[in-house]
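Q: Sequence in, structure out?
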Amino acid sequence: MKQYRNVPRLEDFEVYSPSTAASSRVRARTHERVETLTRQQRIVSWVCRLIAAAIMIETLFFKFTGAPESVYIFSKMGMESWWRYGQGVWELIASVLLLTPRLGWAGGILTLGAIGGAIVSHITILGIEIQGDHGLLFGMAGVTFLCGFIVTCLHRYEIPSYAPTTPY
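A: Exactly. Output:
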């Protein structure tokens, strides 16, 4: 096997066992979060987070109380009750994560999943207009999806194990 200049041989490695003083110094270190977004990007991120969270939180009332529109939607898909509550919990978690400063990326991903499913069900099963709402629910889903997409794109470098294909 070829030996490289500055790399010691495997047989010469020693087990690292830090002293108590070194361990305490490492524990005492504080790491400040590096902000990768510009001021304008942060403003856009927070506006999109607030819009998406507000829309999802507003619809929670209808899902959890069993409003006729919500019951109709989930009955037409054959998932009444159990998925209506599941979707409500999913959107609640996404909203909370969107409003958490360090976990906005997770809220964006959950928003894309929840609202992406809603958009697909509108297009394939429900139709754009539901019970004479003139496409309001579909439009709100579109706006929420767009906001979640923007948040996820802006915070993609904060996602653990994200491997960018291009340098910053």
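Residues 49-157 form one domain.
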